[in-house]
Amino acid sequence: MRIDLRQLSIIYKMNQSTIKIAVKNMVCNRCIKVIKEELLLNNIDFVKVDLGVIELVTAVSDDEKEKLITLLKKEGFELVEDREATIVNKIKSLIIENIHYQKVKQESQNFSDFLVDHLKVEYPYLSKLFSEIESKTIEHFTIEQKIERAKELLTYNQLTLSQISYDLNYSSPQHLSRQFKKVTGFTPTQFKIDGVRKKLDTI
After folding, report:
1. Which class does domain 84-202 fall in?
2. SS3 of residue 75 by DSSP
3. What is the CA radius of gyration of the chain?
4. CA separation for the pair 111, 83 (Å, rounded)
5. How far apart are CA 145 and CA 135, in angstroms?
6. Which of 45, 85, 87, 166 shows a CA-CA span of 20 to 30 A to 127?
7. CA distances from 153 to 149, 163, 197 (A)
8. Tell me, what's the pLDDT at 27?
9. Dihedral, 172, 173, 174, 176 alpha carbons, nearest 10
10. DSSP string spanning 16-44?
11. Residue 104 to residue 85: CA distance in whole angstroms
């Protein structure tokens, strides 16, 4: 028995032949690799896997849905259960992908415009929805991700603070330093000595 997509609500159509399922806690390329391996191992046909999304060939049955939930839960992931949560999950995935995995620096980056362009939804709605579900603003989440990226780059010890601040679109190294200390409790220099990084899915 096939499930009606509207009844499921976790699934939305990409086109007439494929569907997408939103997945929570998919925050890195390793997550994508793990899920691909699980899908292949469990003979679940898919088109591709991106951050926060699995694209399947066809809709899933009740049994297939339960199987998918179980295998995802085993690896620390879970299906997003409604439209609002799906949107919030997509916001988080877009911000994480943009901050942690972009290959080329985007000049004059404005995250509100960036999100609106990708999601085709007005920003006031996105902002209100995100705050209601996450108990923090999109701006706060973005800052947390930028600081986590700064931590990663500081750990590599390959770039100066000026270069890191430029790459993360801060107006100056001082601006980054102030925000870094506000979030972490210590300066970038102190972090190099005894700081600790967080997993992206815990932010």
Report:
1. mainly alpha
2. coil
3. 19
4. 21
5. 16
6. 166
7. 6, 10, 11
8. 81
9. 100
10. SS-EEEEEET--SHHHHHHHHHHHHHTT-
11. 29
Residue 64 burial (CB < 10 Å; 0-12/13-18/19+)? Answer: middle
Q: Which two tokens stand for residue 202?
A: 């815990």
Q: Where are the domains of the chain?
A: 5-81, 84-202
| pLDDT in single tens digits along all 203 residues of the chain | 343 433 334 433 334 457 788 888 888 888 999 999 999 998 888 899 988 889 887 777 778 888 888 888 899 888 887 788 889 988 998 999 889 887 656 665 588 998 999 999 999 999 999 999 889 999 999 999 999 999 999 998 899 999 999 999 999 999 999 999 999 999 998 888 766 655 555 55
Tell me the one-letter amino acid at 81. E
Q: How far apart are CA 14 and CA 26, in angstroms?
A: 19
Q: Which fold has domain 5-81?
A: Alpha-Beta Plaits (3.30.70)
